[in-house]
Amino acid sequence: MDFLHSGLADVQRHLAFVSVDPINWKFYVQVFSWSVTIFESYLLLRQYPLYSKTSPPEALAPHISKEDFAKSQIYGKDKAQFALFSKLFSQCVDSAMLQYGFYAWCWGAAGTILGKLGYGTDYEILQSIIFSFTMYLLSSLPTLPLSVYSTFVLEEKHGFNKTTPALFVGDLVKSWLIAFALGAPFLAAFLYIFQWAGDRFVPWLMGFMISFQLLMVILYPTVIQPLFNKLTPLSDGELRSRVESLAGKLHFPLKHLYEIDGSKRSSHSNAYFFGLPWSKHIVIFDTLMQQSKPEEVEAVLAHELGHWYYLHPTKMMAISQFHIFTILALFPAFLHAPPLLRSFDFPKHVAAKPPTIVAFLLFQMILTPLEAFISIGMNAVSRHFEWEADRFACELQDQLKEESMKDMGDRLGRALITLHVKNLSTVWVDWLYSAYHHSHPTLTERLKVRELLSLELAIISICASRIF
Ligand SMILES: [Zn+2]
């Protein structure tokens, strides 16, 4: 542990200037955040002309009808226009909030509310909780009309929306209540660790964050998700026996197999698994089952089980722990930095003894450009995992020595095409736009890989049959 602390102290020495130099952080954050927005808008402008193409890529042409292709192009165009508008709008709002001292105002308002409740400002954790929720609620208001428009105009126009206004409001209120019910104790514990461990908070906070993530793995499906969707055990039939048999052959610790009423809100479709290492649950969207045949859904699950087989969720979690560690390791320099708070319009008496939550918030804003690069890296890793999972599904026949699985790659390809076509997903994708935004390879890329893979498998089996 001492080695860790001396390493961390070294980092702090290099960053010592933060606590004394009067740097104009606000200006930098404005420049950073506008740069990211301008870059993302540029990506959208690169992608936009591709929605005017009149025919699909060759690899897809046999699988997508003219009408479906035309529909997906119009949907993509509408979404891109909306994305550009909401991006610029949100950036203007954020930028104005930053410029006119919104965060400092929120901290003051939280102090006033605290006073009305009969507490003094020495109750920093309580004030931090009030501050966070005031900020969360107020800053989500300006973008609320955007989400109303996206659901009831954009998705509606293209036939995806199934959400009623009552469901929309219910979801919103529920998500606010959950944010408060989970967020308040999380924040209290998070801030308490800072008070308790002083500058040696890094390992303690890491331990806490990992425990919280594991707790969420249990709580999300059992408590949170049922508030929004209904999960019912998948009824007996071809699909159930296919999935159970596949899970059994792979020794996947399947505890429950659910069907989820995704169609309640939208007709977009999907499938996923979750749970602890010894007890997993698979969830299939009712929409996926309506759109694809049981053997194709089985292939989608074979892909999902590929993620499990290669420990992708665990690897992703390890990467995100490393990410959190880096952030926490840099943070102490910003924790005791009055000039940082002063540059964001906080009054002198607050800046003199910076509240942890405020320092953390401002620190995260400063990290914006770094986070943009990290998300590109994370997407690249995720795309690699998708490729591995596809390959896993295609090679199941060899692994399990099951003749019946020889067409798994074809079935997966058909399911992917159906998913893509029914979801009107974008067909033509600009490479830079995709590298930045997509955690999954594009359909064309996946089909190409699958073809290469089946070619490779065919060659291997030809070679094998020659040898033996
Ligand atoms: Zn996947």
Give the topology, please.
Layout: H1 2-14, H2 25-47, H3 66-99, H4 102-116, H5 124-140, H6 144-157, H7 165-197, H8 201-228, E1 231-233, H9 238-250, E2 254-260, E3 271-276, E4 279-285, H10 286-291, H11 294-309, H12 312-330, H13 332-335, H14 338-343, H15 348-352, H16 356-366, H17 368-394, H18 396-400, H19 408-422, H20 431-437, H21 443-467
Parallel strand pairs: 2-4
Antiparallel strand pairs: 1-2, 3-4
Helix pairs in contact: 2-3, 4-5, 5-7, 7-8, 8-12, 9-11, 11-17, 11-19, 17-19, 17-21, 19-21
Zinc ion binds next to α11 and α17.
Helix proportion? over 70%
Order of helical and strand elements: HHHHHHHHEHEEEHHHHHHHHHHHH
How many helix segments?
A: 21
Largest sheet: 4 strands, mixed
Unreliable stretches: 457-468
Radius of gyration: 25 Å
Bound molecules: zinc ion
Strand tally is: 4
Give the integer mean of the pLDDT values: 86
